[in-house]
Amino acid sequence: MNVLPILKEPHPGRAPCIRSCAACPAHDLGICHGLSDAGNGRYTPPQVSLPASEHTIPARRVIFRQRDLHDVVPFICQGWAASTITLSDGSRQILLFLLPGDIVSPSLLFGPTASCSVEAITEVQYRSFKRDDLKALLTRDLELIEKVARVWNERKLQAQQLAVDLGRRTADERIARLILSLRDRLAARGLVQDQTMEFPLRQHHVADATGLTAVHVSKVLSDFRRRGLIDISDRSLTMLNPAEFQRVATMR
Amino acid sequence: MNVLPILKEPHPGRAPCIRSCAACPAHDLGICHGLSDAGNGRYTPPQVSLPASEHTIPARRVIFRQRDLHDVVPFICQGWAASTITLSDGSRQILLFLLPGDIVSPSLLFGPTASCSVEAITEVQYRSFKRDDLKALLTRDLELIEKVARVWNERKLQAQQLAVDLGRRTADERIARLILSLRDRLAARGLVQDQTMEFPLRQHHVADATGLTAVHVSKVLSDFRRRGLIDISDRSLTMLNPAEFQRVATMR
DNA sequence: CGGGCAATTGAAATACATCAAGGCGTGTGG
DNA sequence: CCACACGCCTTGATGTATTTCAATTGCCCG
Q1: Of A222, B147, B205, B208, which is the most exposed, with the fewest CB atoms less than 10 Å away?
Q2: Is the CB of A58 within 7 Å of strand D?
């Protein structure tokens, strides 16, 4: 019946995400041979593979804490997570939403300290590789280093873009740009069809990512809906007027 | 007479900064033997050195533009610069102030595209190394890669911290934290003495870095002065009450 | 049936922007 | 040497985007 790769979430908190090894750096780097049951047709076998531990975490659970030390480098295989920083008064900033195929933190490749916490938004499945294994691989293949540098650089650009948005853009723009950037990242993984994408975020997630309050996010989203720009229902988002929505995001 | 390493700026726009090869990654990485006349006593000769081109840029001039391509990797030897992004409506976000001893952009080590523009604040002296030279060095010495990774990671952390500050902190906090972070970075280079440091920033620089307007920056700084927290005069800043100032920066 | 999370909506408060005017120091051209 | 413009900072009045507070609803779940 349901031919879309977007799965409706029957009960919030249950694995709603499609797997995407296609865009995963671990797959691209040739260190992961894909999830045991990832038979979505797009999968191609890699040349090498490293031993990995597989984990499944229910929605809303913290995966890693800010100050933890790790000797592993985790990759998201399935589900959405958020990379967050929490201030002492409890307010949070989400630095990045982690999607299937994202490395949790490139800096873990070189040191044991992650600078931020990671929380599961939906149920999350991830794979961890030993840092030492990965490092050994890097020393053997210098081209890998360039690939890693690209991934790392992309992450730095995301952080910079976020800073610009938070510093210089209005609430409307910030929210529209967040949605558009998620759409682009999902599209690159083949997870957008017909302007519709999975959208498991609560409004407080959007608020924490855009430096706003959940109340204000509600008002802005209502306004977007009233203007016929987007529709959000059943944990999925459809862009009804992509051109106009793009304009809202790019006002300045 | 003047025994402080803080030089007063007799005419705005003329080289006001102390050189600091001490904390420079180029020096640390052993690729730079220091400025020809950097005889400040802290200098120790390196093991290796690469050919470098030396440049001097007057204050207020753009050094690199957002979309330029480069086959060189520049390091700041002297003076302050700002790494900025400009939106189409002309508003700017300063992502980072570049101080003596800073690499302009670590991403230039691996690709020709810099994601942001760089503008001289004071007169700036910098050295450029050929990317190919540096890369060749990296392939020969794997320990260098780890050092580069550390520098790179620090830069990513700065971008993330900026995003948190812009997203979740008040104007008072943002400005106080900017000043404190500059103090810490200068102190690491031995450029702070007796709670006094060089401070060549105009208020519009502070505004562009904190996502505020110059008018509001003026009001906040006046308030800081009225409260006896800091004093800014003659392009230099003194922290009169460091403990209380720290508290302002860490309210949440 | 009760309780908790998520979303909505309106009213009031506030932090910051915008607008406007004036002062001060500095370089410049007559 | 003076007049003047210009960049930089300051200050006050006013406007507005966003927060805070509060009440209400629906919904899922125990």
Answers
A1: A222
A2: no
